[in-house]
Specification:
Blueprint (H helix, E strand, L loop, with lengths): L1 H10 L7 E6 L3 H12 L4 E7 L3 H10 L1 H4 L3 E3 L12 E4 L6 H10 L4 E3 L7 H8 L4 H4 E3 L7 H8 L7 E11 L11 H4 L8 H12 L4 E7 L13 E7 L5 E7 L1 E13 L2 E5 L3 E6 L4 E6 L4 H16 L5 H22 L1
Parallel strand pairs: 1-2, 1-4, 2-3, 4-5, 5-6, 7-10
Antiparallel strand pairs: 7-11, 8-9, 9-10, 11-12, 12-13, 13-14
Helix pairs in contact: 2-11, 10-12
Amino acid sequence: MLIYAHLLRIMINKQDKLLKAAIIGLGNQTFNDHIPSLLRRNDVIISVVCDVKKQALDFFCDKYSELSRNVKKYTNFEKIPLSDIDFVIVSLPHDEYFEIIKILVANGIPFVKEKPFARNIEEMKKILSLPGIEKCCFVCSQRRYSSLYVEARKVIRQVGKPYLFSACYKLKIQDPHKGWRGNSLKAGGGCLIDMGYHIIDQLLWWFGEPEKIFVSKSNLAVPKVKEYAEDTSLISFKYSNGLHGSIILSRSTAEKKEEYELVGSKAQINGDKKSLVLRDKKGNVLLNLSIDESSEMIDNQLDFFIKRIRGKRCFSDILSQHKKNMEFIDRCYKVASS
């Protein structure tokens, strides 16, 4: 039904009221999150898709056979007629972003970029130095757009004096050394900059930057391979107000899991992408919220971006958030290597 509704919008787009979107990079994130989110909107049409791999374009055509008939397809980004595009979704291996970002910014095309902001501080500075970057660049940070995470942040005051925050994010990847994500140079690092980016963004959003940190990392999940990006990392931290805690990250465990806990003098919060529970010290439930679809945060994030570009508002505040994320991640890698 989503695809047929999308085709109908293309047919009635006589006055160019709809925004035309281009998608660059047809990986799992695009198929699982971005395309479905675009198709759920009634004010956007997908007009262009691009991927250097023809197999990816073929897969798109097979998965969205009706839709693909009205979508232009490219294997070379530079051949896309950007004058016909209102915004772009870019989801690529981390080392392939910069040249594309540079062209989009030069042409004044707003775009959604998957996290991380950059592979390292040096690349971040290059991106921020591009004239007009604040008018175009939106970087994903999904949890900020989740109603559950927003509500959790509001009820933090009900826990009393918070003294313990812990988070755990684990994935079940059998070969964490393979592909570009296993290459530190291409990815910018392993689970710390990739998976950790989500939790670090949450931590800084809720509490600011910790005063003290201890960080360790390892790549021991594949003993026969010595050199690949870290598959496991632990971040311990402490704030000057007494709050302390830890973040556990791993790309190679027996099950996928993501959850967090905040404990205070009066109550505690337990949550994840689909639930939020607030309990008092006796265990009585004070608040219990849940959502069926984790796609809510994806949709809210896209909605935020589209409202910004329709209102011709810049993304300076978003870039500032991600600059802080990158600076903290850089600090973590330095501590882990010391």
